[in-house]
Specification:
Structural class: alpha+beta
Number of domains: 4
Distance between the termini: 51 Å
Shape: globular
Radius of gyration: 26 Å
Number of helices: 21
Length: 563
DNA sequence: TGTCGCAGCGCG
DNA sequence: AAAGCGCGCTGCGACA
């Protein structure tokens, strides 16, 4: 049965311009294709639909791309929480269909909706058109409509990009990966069996710990065996192990490393995730509270450096790998309007700039101190360096401190474009209330204070991490737009059928880093547009504030060769 | 047999 | 040198 779709046009205020037209999926696809081809670069529609992740893949499979969309599900989540739209009807309405996590939503909605699904009677809660109006009303009544509007556009663009990257896939050379596995682990063995190299290391460990039955995969066994051997150890974490001297440490760490390689990115991972030389990772835009993306399946955002050598461009193609240098401190400088910190990063490595300003002695110190400021370190080297940073950059450090205090009170903080932190959970509020009760014990007070500080560290980091995520979305959206233009202006040598087979396209995103897979001939232009996009993203978020967003850009055929 | 919390470790 | 944010995945081991 072909899904029945209703498409209506609206003006910017959400007023319907016409009664609407009915489509089958096939006729809708043809309509969208025609529209996008005839409106390249200007006056293109912003397609409003329930859920990009469930609908856009149908378009991509039919070789149809769209320039812009409005993802009702993702935008609802932002508007529901944002302090900038807290007074809206949307925010005060009971939680419902649009608040459900995607996997919990009824399957009926996955039938596909364009603007509005005529099968709505099968999913009565899915009221796309009224929801769209509620969202527009929330934006228009906001204290900062420009920021919220940009955030919704960026989030929606991210959803398009996530679907496109999954569709295109990251080039993955299975042979190179297998070669790497065989070199490190030995020949392939059935799952459940230790490969040769791991078995050798296990035997060595057993001898050195004088325990013939030891299973090195069991933390409990291992900890006991290490203690029996006289090692003063309470945990088997890497850094903890590295602190003690014993002949077993080296082979044990090697065992851990290889065991991890086998279980996380071994042969079964290859079998499960690599299809026709591509890793089709499923990205989840908005999957992290701060607005960062998450990923599901295959560990797309945790690809170990160890296996990146298997990410190899197609013949005649190459990768442009770009990452934003010291993104979060630069975001902090701009957020807080700290000219001195922004200046420290002007045309140079920001940490080097901090050293050059005489604030600390080494780059490593500058980095650990900055991380401490953004994460809320109190002890160790980072804690010791913080006062010097605070004297040099009072505005930046003032912002992180204020964000921490806000969280400690149980209040909400908000990113540059308007994503707000969640309220603390009920158990947290109860613990704070308990600490003020007449019956409160010292234990109650200590626990409440500790939890308050925990939440303060979360909100402290939220504003920076969340605003950096917004910058990254704007960066990537601009890259996508410019790649599309480049494709239109350049004659590109094709390599088989498919939407992205002939043109440069995004294939990977990792918080502050992107990879574009491009024909060799266009690599230089791609590298240039990626850098321009970083500057454009900075302007979108921070206007004329003088902060740089420099990139490290590498054009490489193998991801392992980047930086 | 399946579920779940935890430890450990990969990424930013 | 190793504590301070955000994630996902795996294997172990406890429990039903």
């Amino acid at each position: 049965m072909a899904p029945a779709l209703l498409l209506r046009s609206f003006d910017d205020g959400g007023v319907a311009l016409e009664p609407g037209r009915r489509f089958t999926l096939a006729t809708f696809l043809a309509f969208v294709r025609d529209h996008e081809l005839s409106h390249r670069g200007q006056d293109a529609a912003r397609w409003v639909w329930d859920d990009t992740a469930s609908f856009y893949p149908k378009l991509l499979a039919a070789d149809v791309r769209v320039q812009r969309c409005h993802d009702l599900r993702l935008c609802h989540a932002i508007l529901r929480n944002s302090a900038l739209t807290g007074a809206s009807l949307l925010a005060s309405t009971d939680r419902g269909f649009w608040d459900a996590a995607p996997e919990q939503q009824p399957t009926a909605r996955h039938r596909g909706t364009a603007l509005f699904d005529l099968e709505a009677e099968q999913a009565p809660e899915s009221d796309s058109e009224p929801e769209f109006r509620r969202q527009l009303a929330a934006v228009n009544s906001s204290a900062e409509p420009r920021r919220i509007r940009l955030l919704l556009a960026a989030e929606s663009a991210g959803a398009l990009i996530a679907a496109e990257m999954r569709f295109a896939g990251l080039p993955w050379n299975t042979a190179a990966h297998e070669q790497l596995l065989t070199r490190e682990l030995g020949a392939r063995v059935p799952s459940g069996v230790r490969p040769e190299r791991l078995e050798q290391l296990a035997a060595t460990i057993r001898v050195l710990l004088d325990d013939r039955t030891l299973n090195p995969d069991s933390q409990q066994d291992l900890l006991k065996a290490l203690q029996n051997a006289g090692l003063p150890i309470t945990s088997t974490q890497q850094w903890h192990l590295k602190e003690v001297e014993h002949p077993v440490i080296a082979p044990l760490l090697q065992y851990r490393k290889l065991s991890r390689l086998l279980s996380a990115n071994g042969w079964s991972w290859l079998d499960a995730w690599i299809v026709d030389g591509r890793f089709h990772a499923e990205y989840l835009p908005g999957g992290v509270v701060t607005g960062r993306w998450a990923a599901r399946g295959g560990g797309a955002l945790q690809l170990p450096k160890q296996v990146r050598a298997a990410v190899i461009a197609d013949p005649g193609w190459t990768f442009v790998v770009a990452d934003a240098a010291q993104l979060e401190p630069r975001i902090l400088a701009a957020l807080s309007g700290d000219l001195a910190m922004a200046q420290a990063g002007h045309e140079t490595d920001l940490y080097a700039g901090i050293v050059a300003s005489g604030v600390v002695e080494t780059r490593a110190h500058a980095k650990v101190a900055m991380l401490g400021a953004m994460y809320g370190a109190t002890t160790g080297e980072s804690g010791r360096l913080l006062p010097r940073l605070a004297r040099a950059y009072p505005r930046a450090l003032g912002l992180t401190e204020a964000a921490a205090r806000t969280g400690e009170r149980g209040d909400v903080v908000t990113t540059r474009l308007g994503r707000s932190s969640p309220r603390p959970p009920d158990a947290w509020l109860a613990a704070q209330a308990q600490a003020y009760a007449a019956s409160a014990s010292h234990v109650d007070e200590r626990r409440a204070r500790s939890q308050a500080r925990d939440w303060g560290r979360f909100t402290r980091n939220f504003v920076v991490q969340g605003s950096a995520a917004e910058w990254a979305l704007c960066w990537m959206a601009e890259i996508r737009t410019q790649l599309w233009k480049l494709e239109g202006s350049a004659s590109v040598a094709g390599r088989g059928p498919g939407l992205f087979a002939a043109a440069p396209h995004l294939v990977f995103f990792l918080h502050d880093e992107v990879i574009v897979h491009t024909p060799l001939a266009l690599a230089e232009q791609v590298a240039a547009l990626v850098a321009r996009a970083a500057t454009a993203a900075g302007k979108l978020l921070f206007g004329d504030f003088p902060v740089d967003f420099p990139l490290t850009v590498a054009t490489v055929e193998n991801y392992a060769d980047a930086k």
